[in-house]
Amino acid sequence: MLTGALLILAPLFLGFALALQNRRLLTIVHHSVEGLVYFILALLGLGLGQMEGLTAQLSGMATQVLALVVVLFIANMAGLWLFHRWQPMAREESLANVSPGYLRLFMAGLKPTLAVMVGVLAGYLLLPPLPMTEDLATWSLMLLLFLIGLQLRNAGLSLRKLLMNRQGLGIALALTISSLAAGALLIPVLALPWHDVLALASGFGWYSLSGIVIGEALGPAWGGVAFLNDVLREIIALAIIPLLIAARPAMAIGYGGATAMDFTLPVIRNSGGLACVPVAIASGFLLSFLSPVLMAVFLSLG
């Protein structure tokens, strides 16, 4: 199990080690990442659709997702509030006159769910069991992590500056610690070994990663739970960022987790001003690295 976890992590660090200068190649990498995400999510849905007793397990999955979302939300908000009280963040005036395009962002947030649903319907109604699906998902995930490593390295960001951003580093640590504390509270609720629950709590909004990694280790039902938990984090973050960022920017930026450096960044920028952007990028970047590392480590303990 430990060897498998390291194999999953190796492409991420390999990609991060490579510097690219060709803009056209970087554009190809960007579109490849987008396509791979939806392909992997469709494979996750396919595994769910072909799972024995799917309909009987749906109510249990809904309960597990609800428990994860609620406990993680409360714990994350508490941890980020404590960090906000300890290190209050200076912020620009809100850019209220700039429309962040909420409808477009919410529709974009629904796309991953639609990709999974297409896979579920195909697996449940159309396709016979495919023996190579798990291997295909694993190799696709490794390629995705390699390409994401390339993107992170070539995003024009200095790792040293990101690590020296005290607010971004503090937000990332507050979210990580509070998520693991929530995972500890959820161990008796989810009835899984402690290390598996902590792996579930370490997705930080990265649904394309958590769904496949957890699904391969714990089965398609838990992969679906991990996916829905992290998709809902992203959607909730879009709703609460404009409400919280004026008074408590650390809480608004932090709850989005890894998405703060990409998907929720436009809302953070438009609602909180330019001063919030480097903090959001730093925290999202660090959480994007911590998420696969923590999931791999915890799952390797099984």
In short:
InterPro entries: LysO. With 302 residues, the chain is mainly α. It has one domain (2-300).
**What is the overall shape?**
globular
- The ordered H/E elements are HHHHHHHHHHHHH
The assigned structural class equals: mainly alpha
State the helical fraction. over 70%
- The total count of strands amounts to 0
What are the low-pLDDT stretches, counting only 5+ consecutive residues below 50?
A: 94-99
Organism: Marinobacter salinus
GO molecular function: L-lysine efflux transmembrane transporter activity
Transmembrane segments: 61-84, 105-127, 139-157, 169-192, 204-228, 235-257, 277-301
Protein name: Lysine exporter LysO family protein
Structural write-up:
The protein has 302 residues and is an all-alpha fold. It has one domain (2-300). 78% of the residues lie in helices and 0% in strands. Helix 7 (166-190) runs parallel beside helix 13. The termini are close together. Mean pLDDT is 82; it is low at 94-99. This is Lysine exporter LysO family protein. The chain crosses the membrane at residues 61-84, 105-127, 139-157, 169-192, 204-228, 235-257, 277-301. GO terms for molecular function: L-lysine efflux transmembrane transporter activity.
